Amino acid sequence: MSDDSPFDPDLGSPLARGLLSRRTMLAGIGAAGLATMLSACGTKGTASKANPSAQAAADKSDTEKVVNWSNWPEYIDVDDKTKTHPTLLAFAKQTGIKVNYTEDYNDNDEFFAKVQPQLGASADTGRDVWCSTDWMVAKLVRLNWVQKLDKANIPNAVNLQDTLKNVEFDPGRQFSLPWQSGFTGIGYNPKATGGKKIESLDQLFHDPAIKGRVTLLTEMRDTVGLTLLAMGKDPANFTDADFYAAIKELTTVKESGQLKGFTGNEYGKGLASGDIAACMAWTGDVVQLKADNPSLGYVLPSTGHMIWSDNFVIPNKAQHKKNAELLINYYYDPKVMATVVDYVNYISVVKGAKEILVKSDPTVADNSLIFPSDAVLAKAHVFRGLTEAEETKYNKAFQALTTGG
To answer: Which terminus in the chain has less CB density within 10 A, N or C?
Structure first.
């Protein structure tokens, strides 16, 4: 693959059950939904403002062998016969710690609203750990509402993929460790494009053959991020002028009549039917759609694509912090993470998982969307962390674009 060629992955091999269900939950929330802020740069963060004495509770881990974990639906291994989670049962057997696993994280902002009253009052949320998308981690760190991880309890953290070790919103991974990752690129229906591959944003934005049948995403960080990349800008390091130049470009595209509209993952039905010829799309959605319509295409543009992660964090006043850290450590064992990845089929964040799956499930191990090459990862980009003021003004500008308001 040359540096100037788009990456057209083989999505023909069936990926597992969790992809669409998990991504659907994220996509349905619109512009406040999934964001992509994972960054390999070491920009100074806000961690130094944290006050550990105000964050920690008396840890009951040694006397209460329990940990309360909130996560997204369909985002962990499942025994289809018993409807249990084998890795959670194995953790309990290995450590004596019972996991109260709750799939109540359907939406970053919705979940934030659930826990905000307790966090704002320096009270226990009833949860010891949960998995937030990058931009929400940035917000939680900025508010000093999550605790530093005690890496002495997480020795397996050394298995974290190198590209994820030092992120802009959490330098040195003091407050967070990734759970799973994924990509954002372009989906297209060859039957609706006249057999043409749509491999770039230039085509998506300007090709007359698909005029009026293009959709972009209601998630600001994906749509603006891909646009910045097409303009030669880095979504992890841009200025106000760059952002508004991207909004201007998107406005021009919208006013030209090229767009059918902005969507969450409801683009799926239209893409499959051909009502949508091409769109910005999340990998998992297209993988699932291809199960019924193998002709659908998916490309990671040569100008770069977006990457996102969901991350373990431990909230202030968690009652079982050590147990939560032992849980995180357990999932950073390559054998354990291989079991999860084999089921959910997201990008593995743990080194060594691929080598295990090469033997146990080579189809998954060979899938370039689960274990991307260095070349593909080198073109994966992130949307930088925003200040509160930036988040407010950028969301306002993007909302005006998507709604016309």
So the answer is: C
